[in-house]
Every structure is written in C-alpha cells, then in structure tokens.
Write a structure and sequence with these properties.
This protein is globular. By secondary structure, it is of the alpha+beta class. The longest helix is centred in the N-terminal third of the chain and has 7 residues. The two termini are 22 Å apart.
C-alpha cells in the first residue's frame, strides 16, 4: 500500500497509514502520475 508501508517503516502504523476507526483521518489524494493533488489533515484541506 502507498500509505501503510511508509507508516510501518516509520513505526507509526498504529495511528497512520489506513482509514479505520481510531486512526488519524489524514488523507492524501494523488493524480494518475502520483502527484499530490490534495492533502486533508484533521479535517482541513492543506493543499
């Protein structure tokens, strides 16, 4: 997975890397070329 594996390597997979109850709800949205289009952190759009 594009988010879980980096979170696991960083040792933060218990709160980041997946969308599930109890996890931080941060979301990154990418285009077809894997460029970041939007980032949502704590319900706020940052990009």
């Amino acid at each position: 997975m594009m988010t879980y594996n980096p979170a696991r390597v960083l040792g933060i997979e218990k709160r980041k890397g997946t969308l599930a109850p109890g996890m931080d709800g941060d979301i990154a949205i990418f285009d077809d070329q894997i460029r970041v289009k939007r980032v949502l952190v704590a319900g706020r759009c940052l990009v």
